[in-house]
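HUMAN: Spend a minute on the protein record below and explain its fold to me.
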Amino acid sequence: MGAAPTIILRDDAALRVFDTGQGRLSVVFQHGLGGDANQVAQNFPDQPSYRRLTVECRAQGGSSAGSKRPFSIAMFADDVLAAADAAGLDRFVAGGISMGAAIALRLAARHRERVLGLVLVRPAWAFDAAPRNMCPYTEVAELIRRLPLAEASDVFESSATSARFRAEAPDNLASLLGFFARENAAVFAEVMQAIANDGTGVTRAAAAGLAIPTLVIGSGIDLVHPLATARELAETIPNAAFVEATPKATDKDRHFAEIRAAIGGFLNRHFNNQDQS
C-alpha cells in the first residue's frame, strides 16, 4: 500500500490515512462498514499511474472513534474530503466498497467541482435511508449494546436472520459474526447502528444529474449488497457502466480479480493520459 500511514486529527478523532503518493490520477477509495485499508487493497488495482488515498473511518481500522456523535455517512465523507485537502488532492476519482460507495456518491453529488469520476463497488445504499438490506447490522448492534458479547453472539447465531444468511449469503454471515469478536465491539456497535439507519443524502434527481464517468459493480449471493441496488444506481446515473462480478461466496479470488480488472479498465479508458489539473 505504499508509504506508512499518516494520522490526521478531526475533532478529537485520530484518523489513519493511506496515500500511495504516486501517479498522475488521484483516486480516493474507501472501505466498507467495519473494513479498513486492507479491504481496499484487495479490491483496488494499485499501480504507478494511480495515486490512491484511503481514510480508515472513525472506529474502523486503526482510527479512533472520537467523541463527536452521531456517526454518519456525511461525517465520514467530510473526513475523507479533509484528508484529500490535506494531501493536496484538488480533483480526484471517488470510489469505494459498500459504505465506501455511499461516501463516494455523496462526495460526487455534493462536491461536483472536485470529483472527476465515480466507482461504486457492491453498493448497499441507493437513495433511501435505512434500507432493509442493512437491518441485520442494526440487529447485531442492538444485541452487542444490550448483552455480554458471548451471549449476544449466541443469540444472533440462533436467530432467523442468521439462518437465512447461512442458507442464502454465507459470506455476509461471516462478516456479521465477526463484529462480535471486534476489540472495539461496543463503540463499533454505535457506528453500525448509526450508519445502517443513515443514507447518502443524495436524491435520485441529483444522481441523474451527475455528468461524470461512472462504474458500478455488483455481485450476487449477497443480501447486504443487493444486485438490484447496483443496477438501480447504474440505471439512474447517466451513461454509467455496469459490471456483474463473480459472487464472493462462490470464488473470492476470482471476485477480487474481476473487480480490480473492471476498475483498472475503467480508469484507463476514461482517464489515461488526461491532464487532471
Observations:
- The mean pLDDT is 96.
